[in-house]
Amino acid sequence: MTVLWTSKDAVAATGGKTSCDWQATGVSIDTRSIKAGELFVALKDVRDGHDFVAQALETGAAAALVSHVPEGVPADAPLLIVPDVLQALESLAVAARARTGAKVIGVTGSAGKTSTKEMLRAVLERQGQVHAAEMSFNNHWGVPLTLARMPADTDFAVIEIGMNHPGEIAPLARLARPDVAMITNVVAAHMAAFDGIEGIAREKASIIDGLQSGGVAVVNGDLDTSSILTEYARDKGAQYVTFGMGESNTHRLLNVQQAGGMTVVRAQVGVSETLFKINSLGEHFAMNALGVLAVVQALGADVALAANDMALWQPPAGRGTFETVVLDAYAPDQAVTLIDDAYNANPTSLDAALKVLVATQPVDGVGRIHTGRRIAVLGDMLELGEDEMAQHAAFATHPALENVTLVHCAGPRMRALWQALPDHKRGEWVEKATDLAAIAHRLVDAGDVILVKGSKGSLVSTVATAIRNLGQSGEMNSNKGSV
Predict the structure, then answer these.
(1) Can you tell me the distance from the alpha carbon of 424 to that of 20, in angstroms, rounded to the nearest whole number?
(2) Is 109 within any annotated ligand binding site?
(3) CA-to-CA distance for 45 and 86, rounded, in angstroms?
(4) pLDDT digits (tens, 9 = 90+) for 65-115
(5) Lowest mean pLDDT: which of 140-149, 255-264, 350-359, 422-431?
(6) Are 73 and 54 in contact (CB under 8 A)?
(7) Which of 20, 67, 333, 389 makes a 20 to 30 Å CA pair with 48?
(8) Cβ of 49: how many Cβ atoms within 10 Å?
(9) Residue 474, pLDDT score
(10) Positive or negative, the Cα torsion across 38, 44, 46, 49?
(11) Would you call 98 exposed, middle or buried from its count of C-beta atoms within 10 A (0-12, 13-18, 19+)?
């Protein structure tokens, strides 16, 4: 395997000391997933990573990045000793960024960061070596870890940058030093930490603080707060382009059609018109895809090839994936369609998910009830601020619910929605999502389409898992993908 860090390079980057020579093929912060040959970084959280150094070395770690020799570890073990482990990880990130000629893309936004990151990975992989964050590694650990893992021969790097509180994005953006910074959207999320949506917009805009000289900001131009984003860019002297449906945008969605499990998009990218397909349903995916093509153009890469390759992308797990769950191994038509969107939720993403649900066609004549239903299983949306109950209840009048048969709710906040629903649409309400998971077999019937949506902390993902587990016969159990 390719050597990522030598002891000499790591010492030069961090100013630390090591007792021997070693070579690392990767960087890890978790002994549960560490691979032989990787550098283990002993960060401190609920548990102190130093407690796991011996285990990491026994597993085959090339070395460990530590602030002291851990108990039970010999002094001559392959250790890189530094004053502060997190600062040293950030130093590795800075060195990794400096030694590569890669074009770096920073992605932030209130929703859609991970999906957009994966779109960028998919459309750039045929245009060069792509390095991108794993899962949602977008915080004060995830960003430096992603950068520290970046091979020197990378052509494109996609760095996801998130936040929970003011002042988090700018320092991470300065680490990444993106050539292109994309802001997917600004919506009501983490409201408890901010004074209104304008404060969130300013925090998202601070990704521009890290832009390289001559870099380009790609921002959503259809938002109520878009002017905050563009004014921030102007104040910083940064170039910017906008994307969206509005006529004033640099890049525009001209037409979006959803049919046959696909989204077909006609768009104007700069001065050229293009047609592309997304192998999933959702106007919000079309918007993110347009932003991705705007990024590709700003990078100077091949937009036409990227548009063609957009069909290669699939939503990440828990973010709108479609699965066919066969309930009877001997009758393949006895199946339900599961839309697993249980990783995160806010009012904007719930709006998008409900639109996807009603764009998906149930199947009649195959179940006990004989009429296929659209069913929403909803968990609490967290961190919405003081008016969170009103924001939940407001979805009772969402136009999409006219075409939804039943809404099952879990959590104290979703009780506000459940109480506001008309009686004939009220399904179950439970305090904990695990209680819905326990009765999943009673909630579904063959032919149904079931959306499972909620914030990660609501644990509504347990309902998606329970529905998935209703499937029979191994291979037929879960046909993952988009329908």
Answers:
(1) 71
(2) yes
(3) 11
(4) 999 999 989 989 999 999 999 999 999 999 999 999 999 999 999 888 989
(5) 255-264
(6) yes
(7) 20
(8) 22
(9) 36
(10) positive
(11) exposed
Supply the pLDDT for residue 304: 97
DSSP symbol at 441: H
Q: How far separated are the first and last CA of the chain, in Å rounded? A: 38
- For residue 477, the model assigns a pLDDT of 38
pLDDT at 193: 65
Best CA proximity match to 155, nearest among 307, 2, 299, 1: 299
Average pLDDT over residues 351-355: 94
- Which domains does the chain possess? 5-84 (3.40.1390.10), 100-312 (3.40.1190.10), 321-481 (3.90.190.20)
- Give the Cα separation of 376 and 395 in Å (integer): 12
Cα separation of 150 and 212, whole Å? 18
Q: How far apart are CA 235 and CA 237, in angstroms?
A: 5
Residue 411 burial (CB count, 10 A): 27
Lowest pLDDT segment from 33-37, 312-316, 421-425, 437-441: 312-316
Q: Does residue 115 have a known ligand-binding role? A: yes
Strand partners, 267: 253, 274
> What amino acid is encoded at 220 in this protein?
N
How much is the pTM?
0.85
**Which residues lie below 8 Å from residue 220, measured CB to CB, with a gap of 6+?**
109, 183, 184, 185, 186, 226, 229, 242, 243, 244, 287, 291
Under a CB-based contact definition with an 8 Å cutoff, are residues 385 and 192 in contact?
A: yes
Residue type, 107: V
Cβ(310)–Cβ(116) below 8 Å: no
Angstrom distance (rounded) from CA 255 to CA 245: 9
Which DSSP string corresponds to 251-262?
A: EEEEEEEEETTE
Q: Enter the tokens of residue 262.
A: 């696909």
Sequence-separated (6 or more) residues with CB below 8 Å from residue 185: 109, 110, 111, 112, 220, 223, 287, 348
113 annotated ligand-binding residue: yes
Q: Is 88 annotated as a binding residue?
A: no
Q: Spell 322-342 as b/e; 16+ CB within 10 A means b.
A: bbbbbbeeeeeebbbbbbbbb
